Amino acid sequence: MKPTSRDIRTANRYEVLRQIIAESPTSRQELAVATGLSLATVATLVGELLDLGLITEVGFEDSAGGRPRGLVAVDPSGGALIGVDIAETYVHVELFDLALNVLARADEDLRPGESLPEQVVGHVAAGVGSVVAQAGVEAARVLGVGVSVPGQVDRDSGVAEYAPNLDWHDVPLLDLLAGHIAHPLYLDNPLRACVVAELWFGAARGRGDAVVVNLGTGVGAGLALGGGLHRGVSNSAGEWGHTTLVLDGRLCHCGGHGCVETYVGAPGIMQNLRELSPGSPLLHPGDQTATIDALARAVAEDDPVAVKTVRETARYLGAGISDLINLLNPEVVVLSSWVAARLGEPLLAEVRRAVARHALRRPLAATEIVLTPIPTDPVSLGAATFALEGALRSAGRRTPRRSATARSRTAPPS
Amino acid sequence: MKPTSRDIRTANRYEVLRQIIAESPTSRQELAVATGLSLATVATLVGELLDLGLITEVGFEDSAGGRPRGLVAVDPSGGALIGVDIAETYVHVELFDLALNVLARADEDLRPGESLPEQVVGHVAAGVGSVVAQAGVEAARVLGVGVSVPGQVDRDSGVAEYAPNLDWHDVPLLDLLAGHIAHPLYLDNPLRACVVAELWFGAARGRGDAVVVNLGTGVGAGLALGGGLHRGVSNSAGEWGHTTLVLDGRLCHCGGHGCVETYVGAPGIMQNLRELSPGSPLLHPGDQTATIDALARAVAEDDPVAVKTVRETARYLGAGISDLINLLNPEVVVLSSWVAARLGEPLLAEVRRAVARHALRRPLAATEIVLTPIPTDPVSLGAATFALEGALRSAGRRTPRRSATARSRTAPPS
Ligand SMILES: [Zn+2]
Ligand SMILES: [Zn+2]
């Protein structure tokens, strides 16, 4: 509930490793300055990271008039991390070294009607096998596999409780995956994956309160409050997509009416376009990706219907983001996921305009709205980061690679 | 941003004093069990509270086979705290002893047109003078005066930035008050006062994430996340009243349309009644309190228009509270402030029904919705608690009663 000394210690460990990843090589003295921690604390944490093999000593630098200072750097070959992004239409797998460089990628398409849990698990296992083989890493060097699945997730039991766009209810995903994958497994959803990616490598790094707005088929808002991920009491915080924007408005698959998602998720944007221009050639019925791509291209060419559709979408999105700003008073709002990536700057500009009309003066003045600066798939990166955080949480314990929330065939849950 | 060791220390100090207030006398051993802190930590914190004169040694109890255990209790006479609740139509002042018993009360009505800052400050000064005189406490024993003012507040500069219902913009309230009141002053708004009251003495005590929904003339949602108050980056988090419930709906005084407040604040409830029954005798035009009182009495008598009005209000409120549940996944939602107090159980029952229709299954299952258990004015109590927290923050510093956020004639801001 309230943070414990152990939470602080784990957070500080994250902070030091983040800094080393961002700037290698570096000295303990520089780390103390950058993180605001004492030199003694930094020295202890660096020792733990050395013991874990995540970083390595790489020589010395002169210090003016003093003893030479030892330098440490992240050890890219100290282990591999795998991030899995399960979406409605694909499974995307990436393998990273410890500097979070992508060493291998695998993509598996999910055809319509191919979203049964066993089918998806087969694709995940194939993708993980493929990236390990491509990268040529030994299985023992894989520190863990982070898996992102849309919807409501119980990460402790490893159950995908409700994934409407896959039509999943209470799927014991981690158990199913553990039947095929021998590495420690970590389950969570794309919202939280994107927040963790922004906290470690993106626009939320070093910020106080941040909100990561995910715009895809589904939409949600990952919350980074007080410098850490806000999960809520049962790990389901962030369901902004199912907050009401238009009472008694469009029917949502959650059973509600007028949810934010029905106006700004990819199918909602298609509906916005359809309402403005029912026969528009931009519309690719049944194909969200093609429609959003067509829209992005047409906006770039100043097509009036496309511009109007983006403006109308931004009107809804601006009201919904203003709700987040008024309620949470964040320092930064980050637009992420594939719809934000494709509609990009034109959407951002319209959203900023709409938010300026809706939000209250004081929280508005304290916030900036940006597109994610993460150049790759933030969901895979965030999922891999869950595995990295798992390895860091276990630092100093006897069996460092088998944390309470990790699951594998060789380390069954307690 | 992320919690520091010092934040943890302050939070632990709060926790120990809360426990002593809840259960006096008590031993260090019992406190360690109740708070989960080590006996050594508890002993240190108890020592600090003894040094501050907030608690006192009151004897010993036998421990089975061991040395007798020292008992401590809150020292009611160790100081006095004053809480000021500035509302649209009144100024309410309460003086508390350290067990947070009310020793004196003063009420000042604000007549229409009497809301100029200088006039309100005059009423506050008169109220504070009155309670000190009534209680017969020496001025030096007043640890501080907490002042709650509606709207957006910069608590560090002591400026009431935007109080729409008082028509205040950038009023340097703490400076004005310091011209009349010689005690340390703490400024914040009723949202945050109510959260702090619930955290210390109410339904949020010992809980993880909690939301305190304030239903008055204005409405808002105070956020207690991770066991502490979530302020946001510029201390304006909680403006749930100005999140959009009905896009393009009723005009709000904030300039927006369809804000939650326009449907569930007292004037919004009057509008709901007017739309259902334009000539209803329950309507007292221009008098919110009389209308809400009439509504409460009529509901108790099963008057169909009143029942329907409460149901319609709960429909809006349920949708808005579901947004909070879906977004934040709190353990408890507390209904507070005068409209909630007057409409009470009938409103609560309808709200629970509406939330069950709107909220997602997983966060809904983790949440309970309750009326505040605080029997007195939670705003005055919370405001007084700001002064108590101020005294506790300064524990161990050289000048304990002059914290950075306290302001008085004798202790000007640094
Ligand atoms: Zn929905
Ligand atoms: Zn408003």
Automatic annotation (TrEMBL), chains A, B:
PANTHER family per record: BIFUNCTIONAL UDP-N-ACETYLGLUCOSAMINE 2-EPIMERASE_N-ACETYLMANNOSAMINE KINASE, ROK (REPRESSOR, ORF, KINASE) FAMILY
Signal peptide as annotated in the record: none
Keywords, comma-separated and alphabetical: Kinase, Transferase
Biased composition, class Low complexity, residue ranges: 402-414
Family label: Belongs to the ROK (NagC/XylR) family.
Pfam family, one: ROK
Keyword Transferase attached: yes
Domain of life: Bacteria
Record bears the keyword Translocase: no
Region (Disordered): 394-414
InterPro entries in alphabetical order: ATPase_NBD, ROK, ROK_cs, WH-like_DNA-bd_sf, WH_DNA-bd_sf
Molecular-function GO term, any one: kinase activity
Name of the protein: Putative NBD/HSP70 family sugar kinase
